[in-house]
Amino acid sequence: MTENDLINQIVEAAFNHLNLRESGAISNYAFYEKNVLHIVNDITKDYTPEGTPFVRFRLKSSDTLMFDSVYFPASAVAKFFTQARLKADGIFEDEDLRRWFTVQQTILMTAVLLFALYHKLKLSLEITATEVLSNFEENVQKGQDAIESEKGRKTKKTSFKDKRDELFENYKNQVSEFWRTLEEATEMQKKVELAEVYPSISKHWKAINTLLQKDFPNWRDYAKTGEFADTPDDLLEKLWDTEKEKLSVLAIEHAARRVGLIKPYGVEESVLEARKRGFKATGYSTRRLFSFLEEGERQRKLSAPK
Predict the structure, then answer these.
(1) Could you tell me the pTM of the whole model?
(2) Closest CA to 295 of 25, 11, 34
């Protein structure tokens, strides 16, 4: 596979990651931002006659087109691939895992790049127009002051520095808010997935408990069949001492592990020990996990087609 072919595949996968239609246009990409869905619908991809991928951004204000331009992401994708490969070399010994990690992370970074460009372009257009207006006001004021001075009248210089500083600070704050909210969106996606998988996992644990109570032979083997092959052994051990009313504690921990929820900081020693033994313990309390579940369920309702 040539480098150009790989870049083409990565750009294609990045668009798929952003929930695209076959036409290549982003549609209904739900971006969690304080319980508000932000919809991106004006990015399309295409190829030059030579086969080089490019991205077209069309930004609108209401129904008025503000910006229409193309972007060639090949250079950025190549940089992402190089950095991801360096990270993979330091994490994995197996070459297949290195390759998988490198490609997946490059796809993710490319998707984030396209999404960030869209929002930052729109923000830049808005703030640049405001800067021009501010510059216009400053020039007009200087012109008026010059006329008054020519007439022999005393004038006082008006400073526009505070207004410019306020504009730049506002821009910085909005960019920071974008990245913070994007991080929240990533976590919210896991919470939505938690809401999707929990019902079936909850039923699974009730079924396992029933088999255990009836001394069903090989109940452990049943517990780890099919889609539930990931049923954790450390949670199965706890089933012996878990009352029927508390099965949800095991079920929510199992569901959270499946979707990749994990507490990285301030984790108890017992959780770290479990992780060292190969168990992907989340480190979150049961109460916290159920609050994540509620958030995911609310977001699913917000994202549901009207």
Answers:
(1) 0.63
(2) 34
* pLDDT tens column, 2-43: 777 888 889 888 877 765 433 333 333 344 333 223 334 577
Residue keyed to tokens 């989340």? 282
Q: For 221, what's the count of Cα atoms within 13 Å in the CB-facing half-sphere?
A: 3
Whole-angstrom distance, CA of residue 205 vs CA of residue 202: 5
Question: Is 45:123 a contact under the CB 8 Å cutoff?
Answer: no
User: Is residue 13 within 8 Å of residue 106, measured between CB atoms?
Assistant: no
- Closest to 123 measured CA to CA, from 162, 166, 177: 177
Better-predicted residue by pLDDT, 118 or 74: 74
Would you state the structure tokens that stand for residue 62, as one six-digit string?
Answer: 């209401």
How many residues in total does the chain contain? 306
In this structure, the dihedral spanned by the alpha carbons of residues 193, 198, 204 and 209, taken in order and rounded to 10 degrees, is 140
Distance, in Å, from the CA atom of 187 to the CA atom of 256, rounded to the nearest integer, reads 12
Two tokens at 269? 């020693």
Contact 42, 60 (CB under 8 A): yes
Q: In the structure encoding, which two tokens stand for residue 183, read together?
A: 């991080």
